[in-house]
Design goal:
The chain contains 10 helices and 2 strands. It is mainly alpha-helical. The chain has a two-stranded antiparallel ribbon with strand order 1-2. The longest helix is centred in the first third of the chain and has 31 residues.
């Protein structure tokens, strides 16, 4: 446990030292929230968004940015870099096992996502009257399962990529698909219905987040799909993962 604490402390320092990673992961969604919140039309209720303001409709997509950056962009590249440089192999000969480093990276990713989600919800509520999640339990469950599915995909990329360049080459398409179906590049109401439906079941399940945030409990099928993806991708990553 002491070794894990030391690794977590070191990895956290390294993560914060790379100022761009936390800046983009946490600050970018907040900046976009402020930009859209300052536009008067973005705060007006519109039947097109289920009698919600655009900023309420778009808030879950902003949360997708944090989830995708932490889980499928940063995490696999960091782990692949450590493997390529022999860090994981060297750790295997010390009391601090490679598994401790992997656990530390997961803790950092989860902490980043939690901070990003709390700030996004808090700033939206305090500054722009975006309601707090109306179904807190459902929102928490949707966020946990969506995060688990994306982290599992990130670990799967890290498992099959032998070098940092390979990890980046695999992570970027996964990241772009996640952002697209999450409604980040283009708001989902502008997408064809069949693409919106695909996005409902694409991690992190933005429709489940939207439902729990703005109206009702998320649909069980949406949550079940996220859980299945997390289990299958996580189990596959564990089977394929190599320390060197």
């Amino acid at each position: 446990m002491r070794a894990f604490g030391q690794i977590l402390k070191i990895e956290t320092r390294l993560y914060l030292r790379d100022f761009a990673s936390p800046l983009i992961t946490i600050a970018l969604p907040l900046a976009l929230l402020v930009v859209f919140g300052l536009i008067p039309a973005g705060r007006e209720r519109n039947p097109q968004f289920g009698d919600r303001a655009f900023i309420e409709y778009f808030a879950p997509s902003l949360l997708v940015i944090t989830l995708a950056m932490a889980a499928v962009n940063i995490l696999p590249i960091v782990l692949a870099t450590y493997r390529e440089r022999g860090v994981l192999r060297r750790l295997a000969t010390t009391p601090a096992s490679p598994a401790a480093l992997l656990a530390a990276q997961l803790v950092i990713s989860l902490a980043t996502i939690l901070v990003g989600a709390v700030l996004l919800i808090g700033v939206g509520w305090l500054a722009f009257d975006v309601p707090l999640p109306r179904h807190p339990l459902g929102f928490t469950l949707a966020l946990v399962l969506g995060t688990a599915a994306l982290l599992a995909l990130g670990l799967l990329v890290a498992a099959v990529a032998r070098t940092a360049k390979a990890a980046q080459g695999l992570a970027v398409p996964v990241f772009m698909v996640t952002m697209f179906f999450g409604g980040v590049y283009l708001p989902r109401f502008l997408l064809p219905d069949f693409l919106v439906r695909i996005g409902d079941y694409t991690p992190p399940g933005v429709q489940a987040l939207l439902d729990a945030w703005t109206a009702d409990a998320p649909k069980p099928l949406h949550l079940a799909i996220m859980a299945v993806i997390a289990v299958i991708a996580g189990a596959t990553a564990a089977k394929l993962f190599r320390w060197e």
